[in-house]
Write a structure and sequence with these properties.
Elements lengths: L5 H8 L4 E6 L5 E11 L4 E6 L4 H8 L2 E8 L4 E13 L5 H23 L18 E12 L7
Antiparallel strand pairs: 1-2, 1-4, 2-3, 3-6, 4-5, 5-6
Length: 153
């Protein structure tokens, strides 16, 4: 179990989405965008997945996962490596669903503000059209990789 610094926790919480990578049945990396609902200094990362697709199937076969995020403007980022378990929808806690709803509301608000400033993005609000989460991914972090180039640290 790897403890996470406040810097790493806050970095991931500030991201709109992260890239979750799993291994498919042929041994290839599968990457998908997901949203973090909660991340704790104890090294647990909680992601609600809206679909039971490739990520779900891959995690059922192989629990190894990595979560990556970067800030292009600051030229920094992290990759978290570990193992994950899948919890079905019926095991989702009320507090996690509320946290997910708060994150979606925040994303919609940010999109509206950008649209008002004429930073036009998607013509609709995709977050508002998202389905209810189907399951929870709980990852225990074993390793943290700082993606910031050494000469910039």
């Amino acid at each position: 179990m790897k403890r996470l610094s406040n810097e790493v926790v806050n970095f991931f919480l500030a991201q709109g989405c992260v890239v979750v990578s799993t291994i498919d049945r042929k041994g290839f990396v599968h990457s998908a965008c997901k949203g973090i609902v909660k991340i704790s200094a104890s090294g647990r990362v909680y992601l609600l997945d809206l679909y039971k697709g490739s990520t779900h199937d891959n995690l059922r076969r192989n629990p190894h996962v990595s979560i990556s995020a970067f800030n292009e403007h600051k030229f920094s980022g992290y990759c978290l490596k570990g193992k994950a378990v899948i919890l079905p929808e019926e095991r989702l806690r009320y507090s996690l669903m509320k946290a997910w709803e708060a994150r979606i509301t925040s994303r919609i608000t940010q999109r509206l503000l950008k649209n008002i400033r004429e930073e036009k993005g998607h013509p609709r609000h995709p977050e508002a059209l998202m389905p209810k989460p189907e399951y929870l991914i709980v990852m225990q972090v074993d390793e943290v990789i700082d993606l910031t180039p050494h000469h910039l640290k």
